[in-house]
Each structure stands twice: as C-alpha cells, then as structure tokens.
Amino acid sequence: MATELEYESVLCVKPDVSVYRIPPRASNRGYRASDWKLDQPDWTGRLRITSKGKVAYIKLEDKVSGELFAQAPVEQYPGIAVETVTDSSRYFVIRIQDGTGRSAFIGIGFTDRGDAFDFNVSLQDHFKWVKQETEISKESQEMDNRPKLDLGAGGLSLLPPPPGGKVTIPPPSSSVAISNHVTPPPIPKSNHGGNDA
C-alpha cells in the first residue's frame, strides 16, 4: 500500500510550548485562553509538527529526552483537531489522541507571538499542499477515465472538413464494401537456386 512508502517530514519545531488542561467548552461559544490558568501550565516542552502523507501530526515532546507526551493527528485545518481561541492569537485548542482512539482536548500556548504565527502557517501550508495534490491526482484520474481516441479506421471523421471543400467520409461501420481493397500482385517464382534444369 502507498502508506508504507510515505515518509514522515518535519514541518515546524518550536522549542517552547505550554500545555493546559482546559475546562469544558461553555455552550457554542469558542474557547477562551483567559479561562485557563495561564500562569500555571500543566506541562511544558517542545512542539513538533510532522506530516505523513496528507495527515499532519502535532507532537508534544519532552525538551531533553524527546519522549512523546501527546500527539494530535490533524486531517484538515481549520477543523476540529486544532481551534484558535477567541481572545488570543498565541493559544490554541488541540485534540490529542492515543493509539486506542481515545481523545481529549487540551490547550497549548506560545510565549512568543511569532511562534504561534509559525505554528499556524505550517499547518495552513501543509493543507494547501494537500489540496493541490488532491486536485492534481483527481485531474490525472479524470484523464485516465476519458474515452481513448480511436485513431484507427474511421478516426478521420474526428477531423473537421477542410475549408471551402465538401468532403464526404463514409460513416465508419463494419458493412463498408471492400471495393477499395487492393490485392497485391502474385509474387513470381524465382529461378534462383530452386529448380534443377
């Protein structure tokens, strides 16, 4: 399968990210970073965004050991896996998932606005690329599914008639008379080598 051939590439690394347990979302309004205990992050570490095929992965890792703390697969952006908060450009809510399919929403934040910008742009660029790849493969599939031009007998009827002249081309069918069939002349027997005279 193609997934075995896909390799993981790194889109973005940010050495300093804070993680917050967040309260459940209140009704339909968006998440607000001001509802979190911003001065008391639950975890701090390094953030790495990688991609494998069309999916991006936000990985939260220990700064020293590189051990994975949590990971959030992102299949579309913007989407449910990554949301911006309503009151700051430096904080996001991501949906982390473990290998068993369980998921949880956590808050992440960057001290530097530039890091938040890079995080955002890395995801946008990845999904812009995914969209282009999808369109290109869709176009090539459509090309494969188009009827092939028959350039054999009767194929000339695809050409428009020359300007000014009336050309009648018989419709291609199996009942065309073989009046224009030319039989090759018989090959004369050669006198070389074959006869004992």
Provide the descriptors you would attach to this structure in a database record.
19% helix; PH-domain like; 197 residues; alpha+beta; 7-stranded antiparallel sheet; elongated
CATH architecture of the domain at 8-127: Roll
Structural class of the secondary structure composition? alpha+beta
Number of strands: 7
Shape: elongated
Q: If helices are DSSP runs of H or I spanning 4 or more residues, what is the number of helices?
A: 2
Main location: membrane
Keywords: Cell membrane, Cytoplasmic vesicle, Endocytosis, Membrane, Phosphoprotein, Protein transport, Repeat, Transport
Pfam families: DUF1681
Biased composition (Basic and acidic residues): 135-149
Protein described:
- This protein has 197 residues and is of the alpha+beta class.
- The protein is 19% helix and 28% strand.
- It has a seven-stranded antiparallel sheet.
- It is elongated and about 105 Å long.
- The N and C termini lie far apart (73 Å).
- InterPro entries: NECAP_PHear, PH-like_dom_sf.
- Residues 159-173 have a biased composition (Pro residues).
- Residues 7-150 form the NECAP PHear domain.
- One of its GO terms (cellular component) is clathrin vesicle coat.
How are the secondary structure elements laid out?
Elements: H1 2-5, E1 8-21, E2 43-52, E3 55-61, E4 68-74, E5 82-84, E6 91-97, E7 103-109, H2 113-145
Antiparallel strand pairs: 1-2, 1-7, 2-3, 3-4, 5-6, 6-7
Summary, kept brief:
The protein has helices at 2-5, 113-145; strands at residues 8-21, 43-52, 55-61, 68-74, 82-84, 91-97, 103-109.
